[in-house]
Amino acid sequence: MLTILGLTLVSTIVYHLNSRMNTVEFLPQAAEDLLAFKVYIQKIIRADIRTQLEEGDPREETRNKQHPLDPPSPFADYELRVQKWRVFYWIEGETVVILRIGVKEKNRLRIGGEEIRL
Q1: Contacts (Cβ under 8 Å, ≥6 apart) of 9
Q2: What is the pLDDT of residues 74-94, one digit of tens each?
Q3: What is the pLDDT, as a whole number, of residue 1?
Q4: What local confidence, expressed as pLDDT, does residue 37 receive?
Q5: Is 93 contained in some domain?
Q6: How many structural domains are present in the chain?
Q7: Residue 62 maps to which CATH number?
Q8: 100 - beta bridge partners?
C-alpha cells in the first residue's frame, strides 16, 4: 500500500484496473448534431454518453438503452435515450461509434434539421 500526503493510492490503482472504459467516437454528422444544441443540453447528453456508453456496458439493454431498435432505425443498431434526446450508435469491439443525435417529441424525431415520422 502506497500513501502519499495521506492519500492511499492502492484503491485508485485497483479501481482503474477493475474499471472497463470504452472508447467513444463521434462521426462528423453526430458532432454537428451535438453542437447544434445549447451548451447545457450538450452537457446533459455528454454526461449520459460518458456514464452509459463509455463507463458502462453499451451492449446491455436497459430502460434507456434499446437493442434491437423497434422499429429498425436507418441510423444505428442501438439507441440511448437521454430525456427527450436520442443518441444513435453502433459498437465495433471496444469502440462505441456515435452516428447521429436527435430530439424526439411525441412521434416525431428531428435529426440534423430533418424530421422523421415514427
Answers
A1: 2, 3
A2: 668 899 999 999 999 999 888
A3: 43
A4: 95
A5: yes
A6: 1
A7: 3.30.2310.20
A8: 88
